[in-house]
Amino acid sequence: MIRTEKCVKISIYTMLNRGFFVERYKEIERSIIKKFRRSIWSGFVTGINRYNLISKDDVIAVCISGGKDSMLLAKCMQEIQRHGKFYFGLEFLVMNPGYSEKNMDLILENAKNLNIPVKVFETNIFETVANVGQSPCYLCARMRRGYLYSKARELGCNKIALGHHFDDVIETTLMNMLYAGEIKTMMPKLHSTNFKGMELIRPLYMVREDDIISWSRYNGIKFIECACRFTEGLKNEEHESVSKRKEMKMLIKKFRQTNKYIDMNIFNSVHNVNLETIVGYRKGKERYSFLDDYDG
């Protein structure tokens, strides 16, 4: 019996030394750059390089909501910081706008398991917008952005990174065309208008949502889906059935069934605008028409 225990101990010691027992977060990190190298890592790096999202000596606040997108973003940013060509700093921010205790516990548990050193700060956003009659989501989004910029600057950051992905971009483009009557997309980066010297970047700009879902399922991680205090009591399908973004998701799904290149064509179309065939456009407050120089 003693001999057996000794053999087991020696066997475990040998396995530890040979790397058989690897911390969970390292397995998840490897999955990003190995199994999902083409579908996630390549798109992530391509987006950063194509839109020049990260520069030397940046200090970037990665904003974590607790969903799959922002958690994947945090891991990708850690990886590129370790293996990139130049130094830049990272801070990982979790803003609590009034989440339920259950959701906050899940966010913190996932951050610990994924080895993401988060800094949590409290706000009362949900309470503030609770009695807003119209557009509480719009006000909530604006307040969130303001708090994130403010906290990021307090920590010495010059950029905040959000987890919007490829599908968010084409959904926004279609939503603006169909419901706002304008061609307007989600930009890969923006200068802040209220916080001078601050920028917003979207490093997952060229990563598809289906691939993010596949990554989370492969690693068996459960993330929060909707932490909004006003909707978390509803069934998911009841809430999303009235969402324009859900409608866009379904529309794009149908497009993909018709032609697998349609979503990329929508994405490319806003990078390839032919001004000679545009009837009108505006820049700032100025409006322009093709008639302005039609006879010139």
Characterise the protein shown here.
With 296 residues, this protein is α/β, with parallel strands linked by helices. The chain has one domain (23-242): HUPs (Rossmann fold, 3-Layer(aba) Sandwich), CATH 3.40.50.620. It has twelve helices and eight strands. Helix 5 links the parallel strand 2 (89-96) and strand 3 (118-122). Helix 8 crosses helix 11 (244-258). Mean pLDDT is 86; it is low at 1-21 and 233-242.
Keywords for this structure?
6-stranded mixed β-sheet; 296 residues; Rossmann fold; globular; alpha/beta
Per-chain topology:
Blueprint: H1 2-17, H2 24-33, H3 37-50, E1 59-63, H4 68-83, E2 89-96, H5 101-113, E3 118-122, H6 125-129, H7 136-154, E4 159-161, H8 166-180, E5 189-191, E6 199-201, H9 209-218, H10 236-240, H11 244-258, H12 262-269, E7 280-283, E8 286-289
Parallel strand pairs: 1-2, 1-4, 2-3, 4-6
Antiparallel strand pairs: 5-6, 7-8
Provide a concise account of the structure shown.
The protein is α/β, with parallel strands linked by helices and 296 residues long.
| Share of helical residues | 40-55%
How many H/I helices?
A: 12
The main sheet orders its strands as: 3-2-1-4-6-5
Q: Specify the structural class.
A: alpha/beta
Q: Distance between the terminal alpha carbons, to the nearest Å?
A: 98 Å
Major beta-sheet overview? 6 strands, mixed
CA radius of gyration is 22 Å
For the record, the count of structural domains works out to: 1
Instruction: Give the integer mean of the pLDDT values.
Output: 86
> Could you say what the CATH topology is called?
Rossmann fold
The SSE string, one letter per element, is HHHEHEHEHHEHEEHHHHEE
Query: How many E strands?
Result: 8
What is the CATH class name?
Alpha Beta
Shape: globular
Share of β-strand residues = 5-15%
Name given to the CATH architecture: 3-Layer(aba) Sandwich
The name of the CATH superfamily reads HUPs
Low-confidence stretches are 1-21, 233-242
